Amino acid sequence: MSAVDFSEWAAPDLELTFKGRTFVVRPPSVDDAVRVLALAVRGEVNLGMVPGVEIPKEIQDVLDEIKPGDHPALGETFHEMKAAGISSATIDRTAYYAVFYWARGKKYADALGTLLWSPRAKGEETTADAGGAPRKG
User: Fold this and answer.
1) Are 72 and 101 in contact (CB under 8 A)?
2) All residues at 6 or more sequence positions from 115 whose CB lies less than 8 Å from its CB, including other chains
3) 100-123 pLDDT, tens per residue?
4) Considering the entire predicted model, what is its pTM?
């Protein structure tokens, strides 16, 4: 029996470049994927993307299991970024981006990142300046 090389069909890593350094984020495990999807639901609800909807109890239960400092969408890369001295605000943004990258794809994550963190007209405050994204990403 011959082996099939599945490498080109597997989910690719997410590469995040910041100040000349590239951090490689592996796709979430099965268990973390459940948490990432729950985080995506919470993010969309908190951002008002689904008006009038509350987070379902089953999803909130998954969210409640996430430990402080755990970033299911970043995995071990969170610890690498922390050790590299990356600011907590930047790590939070990368975690938020990674949640939507894994849950909805690159185009969606890029569009959301542009909306949340790109500077607007001169002097206008961005969402991130006003407090940034929720923690636990």
Assistant:
1) no
2) 127
3) 999 999 999 999 999 999 986 545
4) 0.83
